[in-house]
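Sorry, explain these tokens?

***
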Amino acid sequence: MENRKRLPHWLKMQRASGENYSRVKNLTNHFGLHTICSSGNCPNIGECWNAGTATFMILGDICTRACRFCATKTGKPLPPDPEEPAKLAAAVKILNLNHCVITSVDRDDLPDSGAAHWAEVIKEIKKINPGITIEALIPDFDGKKENIGMVIGAAPAIISHNLETVRRLTPVIRTKAKYERSLSVIEMIASSGIPAKSGIMLGLGETEDEVIETMDDLRSAGCRILTLGQYLKPAEGYTEPAEYIRPEKFEEYKIIGLRKGYDFVESSPLVRSSYHAEIHAGIK
């Protein structure tokens, strides 16, 4: 993470330590699991892990894409671990979670982009943890309906796919992903009846008009839950923030989003995709 002394006071983060933090860390290490919290250098890792929760990342920790905002390793991934569904289901049970969030690296190397593995993970977690709700934060699966359909068929409570930024900046900070393709993924999710969720980062040089346009595009695609947070450079060599958006502006965007018909809008500097995810799971 970049030098925090240079950040505005409203971006103060909780220290990554404590009994629960160590418990989550030891558990993920024991089962050989990955989290986007650590792989992506999330600023909220201290807060979330101290609360006894984490966003699990399946299909390994090596992504086939190299987006300019994400610290996840890029390269040639290992084959999917056939034991991962059982391991993750066991970890969720030990943590006694009522709700869990799962994400993954992009697996463009696999014929189905990892969709069948995704479905197996969701089904196994629900089997071992009856009554649990799951949010699946999915990649774009190249926009292929059959692959997205596998995740839909596993019936998580919410399916999320992040648009990440405004249309103009998409080619700058995302690699293979495309703005319109991501909107089509949201449309597929929404048409299934499962609540669709998405998120964008602010502070990359977007204008207010572009943020509003993106809100409208997502809402038109059927998105019901929106998260907006401040982009922070995860490490040296990544895109520099163009600005740090003040909390008052995030609150303004929240009000605008709710007026546009979103069920939930989580909007503040340190908001990330899984922020208040357990609350979002309650919508119908």
Q: What stands out?
A: The CA atoms of residues 66 and 74 lie 6 Å apart. Residues 14-280 form a domain with the TIM Barrel fold (CATH 3.20.20.70). The chain is about 40% helix and 15% strand.
